Amino acid sequence: MSDLGMTVQSPADSLPDPAEADNVEYDPSFAQLREYSRELETETEFGSPAYVSEHRSRNADATKNAVDDEFTASDYQVIETAYDAAAEREMVCLDRRLGRHPENSYVCRLFVPKEHARIALAWGKLLEPVEGDREPDFYTVQLPDRDEVAVRVVPESGVTAVLGSDYTGEAKKSFLRLFMFYAKQQGGLGLHAGTKRVDLETDDGMDTVGQVFLGLSGTGKSTLTAHGLDLEDPEEATMLQDDVCALRTDGSVAGSEGQGLYIKTIGLDADEQPELHEAATHESAVMENVDVDADGTVDFDSDEHTANARAVVQRDHLDSADDEIDLPEVDQVFFITRNPAMPPIAKLAPEEAAAAFMLGESVQTSAGDPSKAGESIRVVGTNPFIVGSKGEEGNRFRDLVADLGVECFVLNTGNVGDRDVGVDDTVTLLREVSRGTIEWREDDATGLTVPASVPGMDVSRFDVADALEDHEDRIERLRTERRTHLARFEDLADEIEDAVY
Question: For the chain, N or C: smaller number of CB within 10 Å?
Fold first, then answer.
């Protein structure tokens, strides 16, 4: 080993200073980054660049962090390999600001080889430029052309090395993973979640409801976070964050990405998702693994390259996106699932909500493991990027929502038995939950608190006992599976494990 050492304490001393290194081009413009990537680009009919990567999802199986995994000399060697390359190869380097909150704002520095500048182009459009002379807090070196596929993270040092993958999502998540880790160090909790602010008219004037949506990529989190809930002026629903945020002990939620969103585009529909479609078809977007013909024609319905096709879009082109990214106060948290044994919405007590957090039930999407897309999956916090004890995360979540008096719900955006829950149904439920107009009842079939009546909606058609064949056996099997799952987490509080629904 060289002076990098086994602890990676000082990345600034081991990585080249981009202001002085001859092999590093520091802070090139988006136009320059695009020009460097011209040979790999297909220009779309909208004038935006489109690229096809070799890797089309994250390499979770090849990722290790120094907190949860046993780090050997070979793991540190992966980082040293990346550092050495950054000092020798022709690189581009970009600094960006992650988050705006005074206590949850970080400077991120990304190094990529010049021939892979498209990664920096897409990533750079997600985050805001750095103001002032702040030194980086987090560093990532990404070397797509290495034969070995490996992602190594040293959280305490703010260091990530990505070898062998040219997927933009690896660069993006390398920094968001650390954002969430540091939120937990401060007593809060990092969340793989979107946030929105809902402003409603009441007899006493305007009232604001802060909402947080937890869900795996591809389950509707972006769609629901960006949806205007069909409100009319002066009422409005405004998106603050789409992907990762930090729940703080004072009830505020700090955002992370201030400039763009990294959205899934498969099936992107102008009628059902008009704002996202408009942003994705603007010339400022950057498409990754979207099916684009040689003449520039874009087909969002095609999975020619992957079902995990993506686009980086700009917040400026989303009418529902606010200038702010921080939520001053959270009132409601929603867990998005697609479990056919669940009602379209259910209200949860704090221990039940913590159990839902630990269960993280959904279906596998192409953003995780494309070979298992559509299969049932459980991911704690619907967050594949947790660093540290998962049981402690569940305990922390329970304590925070209980202390803050946050209402929690599980939201099924898939099917109840054989009955589809459409976007309009979900929007109606969200709007009326925001208004507080739903009447609730205890459901004998599921043991959950479910709607008895919802203004503007016949919620009785989603009765689980009626819609789900053999509902008693299926629900009992589900409870058994859930208990078995929660029993895996030694650090999880007993009352959360006992609250399984």
Answer: N
